[in-house]
Design a protein that fits this description.
The protein is of the alpha/beta class and 329 residues long. Helix content is 33%, strand content 14%. The longest helix has 20 residues.
Length: 329
């Protein structure tokens, strides 16, 4: 499968009638008008950021030091408040992704957290902090015990984030633009068993114009790299967890429309290998079903996905050697 990225550049055509003297300030009018127009559009638009936070206790960074989860949570809260601080119209949502469920940490659909006035802190920022901490604490207390390592439901959490964004976009008033993006923070290993769900999420986000960013805290995840490349997002692997907040503010705080003006880390080389449907492993060469396009690492006479029966491949025909012509013949 080939992916074609087409960058659409916006061309501004300025029509000028007659000659304008160089001594006047008329030459500055088109630039000022464009700046005012762009600033008004930026003020009226809504930037929605949905953060998917992996809270699976089987992550290596969490098993190594449980305090790392607290450090990550503090950085996420500060980053979310920084996003809200940029513009009054900005919106924020935080989802918790674990091995058994996906939950909203902020905002809460039904009940609100009891908020008391805190001196020196904006009420909206205090609401985000208290709501996220209380919800995550309740989720971790009621989570089932793990008998062994388990995968995080990242693909399902991203699907829920897409549904949330789609619902908000339908309720936006006419004339107001909403720019939405998803930021995934995870320290889990490669989730090859969720390959099909990941691909559905990536291409749905591309169709809806939603950017997917990924901040990998431990491993280099090839599937999420593909999603960032397909949706024109940013992928970053954090080298030092102590500087997580600095990485978030540097790379992921600017809107995708402004990133081309900044000096950001170069994008990594994307690994576009597919995951086989039989062993859920990434492969370079495999067998593809001609009916449902399922990928298998080994040949099977029956497709386990659509149950199509294939003919057993016979031996390759061997061509006979041609006899050399002699002078007598």
């Amino acid at each position: 499968m080939f992916f074609y990225k087409i960058k659409l550049s916006l061309v501004f055509c300025i029509y000028r009638k007659g000659r304008i003297s160089a001594d006047t300030d008329a030459d500055k009018l088109p630039a000022n008008m464009e700046a005012e127009t762009s600033s008004k559009e930026a003020e009226s638009s809504i930037d929605l950021l949905v953060i998917v936070l992996d809270t699976n206790p089987s992550q290596h960074i969490v098993r190594q030091n449980p305090q790392n989860l607290t450090q990550i949570l503090e950085a996420v809260i500060a980053f979310g408040n920084a996003h809200l601080m940029q513009k009054a119209q900005n919106k924020l949502a935080v989802l918790s992704c674990s091995h058994h469920a996906t939950n909203f940490l902020y905002p809460l659909p039904r009940r609100q957290v009891e908020l008391r006035q805190v001196d020196g802190q904006y009420e909206a920022f205090s609401l985000v902090e208290k709501t996220v901490k209380q919800q995550l604490g309740s989720i971790l207390m009621n989570a089932p015990r793990l008998n062994g390592p388990s995968e995080s439901l990242l693909a399902g959490s991203m699907s829920m984030a897409l549904c949330y964004i789609s619902r908000l976009q339908r309720n936006v008033t006419s004339g107001v633009k909403m720019h939405s993006r998803i930021l995934v923070l995870t320290g889990s290993n490669e989730c090859a068993s969720q390959y099909m769900t990941f691909m559905n999420v990536f291409f749905t986000a591309q169709k809806l114009g939603i950017v997917i960013d990924t901040c990998a805290l431990d491993k280099t995840l090839s599937l999420l790299q593909q999603g960032c490349d397909i949706t024109s997002g940013q992928f970053l692997k954090v080298t030092q967890l102590e500087g997580l907040l600095q990485y978030l503010l540097w790379v992921f705080l600017p809107a995708p429309q402004m990133r081309h003006k900044l000096v950001l880390p170069p994008p990594p080389k994307v690994d576009y290998r597919a995951s086989c449907f039989c062993h859920r492993e990434l492969i370079d060469i495999g067998y593809v079903c001609s009916v449902c396009l399922s990928v298998f690492c080994k040949y099977s006479p029956i497709c386990t996905t659509c149950h199509t029966i294939f003919k057993t491949p016979g031996p390759l025909p061997i061509k006979g050697k041609k006899k050399k012509k002699t002078d007598k013949q």
